[in-house]
Write a structure and sequence with these properties.
homodimer; about 210 residues; alpha/beta; Arc Repressor Mutant, subunit A; Rossmann fold; 2 domains; 7-stranded mixed sheet; about 20% strand; globular
Chain lengths: ~210, ~210
């Protein structure tokens, strides 16, 4: 299969969110321009993305919301479910553990790590916590491929190195620093401070 | 002045982060290709972005790190400092209050709001907390233009409406739903679950 880009996957994930909201509101059919409008992109882009899935709408009735949602889920999710590890049980780490606890049937944070012994050997928001020294062993045993980094900037690279050695293939990095990983490991950064700076810039009268 | 795009501001903010790291490491001069390499973009893009600031490097010595950093800060920051409001004092809200407490001299969260009376009328991570009913009054009094939404999805639109009425011009929205605002209000979404889904997708063996 042709390699799907980062941006396409991001948009499919956004369509899924919109389709779920649409279903809750009781709407069963949706035209590409309506989905495009909700997503803030062009209808041509929506049609092009959904063509990758091989999903066709009816020109007169639009897409079947339920069918399209199933099709996107099948494409994005691992039917067996995926485990995620989190490193750094500070405020942000806890917030993320709380947020994901039981929310996504196909995606769950199954192990959290920290260097502080007071934070390990317990369960936080139904996630088992371990000392960082157990990272390699736990991640290998559980076959975890995805990790979240919520440690301070100066510890992020060391943690990323350990994660890669343990077999992690994708990292969501909240530390405000770019981590170096082999080219076949996917990294997505979320630097909350940087995003807030941007919003603050656009808030000011020009 | 020509309207600067969202993407340019995002990159300038990233350059600033990299330049700060560079200074800490003791490096005083940097070529555009080095900055580009750290930022994961092309050198031509870096030069084009910095030209907007009117900042020129020397072809033989590169950019002066300290000078360029000052120039970017002058461009991005309000010299008088900017206040930010946060709505939703849950786990994520608290994590963000903690993270920003005293970290950025030019950007501080000066008011937090919640509907739960147990969470208001106190101070969390040096930020004063208020009941949501005081939002309009407090934001107007403090002249706040930027806000962060960390409430659940079903409350996000109502909160966004209140914020806009109070004069907010930029919103960082963590609720997993798109909020509708007038076209002159800037909104940036961070949907952590959606980003994690993308990382999980790219972690799987294809």
């Amino acid at each position: 299969m042709k390699k799907i880009s980062d941006k396409v996957i991001g948009r499919l994930s956004l369509y899924r969110r919109i389709l779920r909201e649409t279903l809750i509101l009781g709407t069963r059919k949706l035209f590409s321009y309506q989905l495009a409008n909700s997503a803030g992109i062009s209808a041509a882009q929506v049609r092009q993305d959904l063509m990758i899935l091989g999903y066709m709408g009816s020109p007169t009735q639009g897409y079947d919301v339920h069918g399209l949602l199933e099709c996107i889920e099948e494409f994005l999710d691992d039917p067996a479910g995926q485990s995620v590890a989190l490193v750094g049980i500070g405020n942000l780490g806890r917030a993320i553990l709380d947020y994901f606890s039981g929310r996504r049937p196909n995606l769950s944070i199954d192990a959290a790590f920290d260097i502080n012994p007071e934070k390990t050997n317990g369960v936080i928001h139904s996630c088992r916590c371990y000392h960082l020294d157990q990272l390699l062993q736990v991640i290998e045993e559980k076959g975890i491929l995805t990790a979240i980094i919520t440690v301070p900037a100066d510890q992020a690279q060391g943690v990323a190195d350990r994660l890669v050695r343990a077999g992690i293939r994708g990292i969501l990095n909240f530390a405000p620093v770019r981590v170096k990983v082999p080219p076949d490991v996917f990294v997505q950064d979320i630097d909350i401070a940087m995003v807030l700076e941007k919003v603050a810039y656009f808030s000011r009268p020009k």
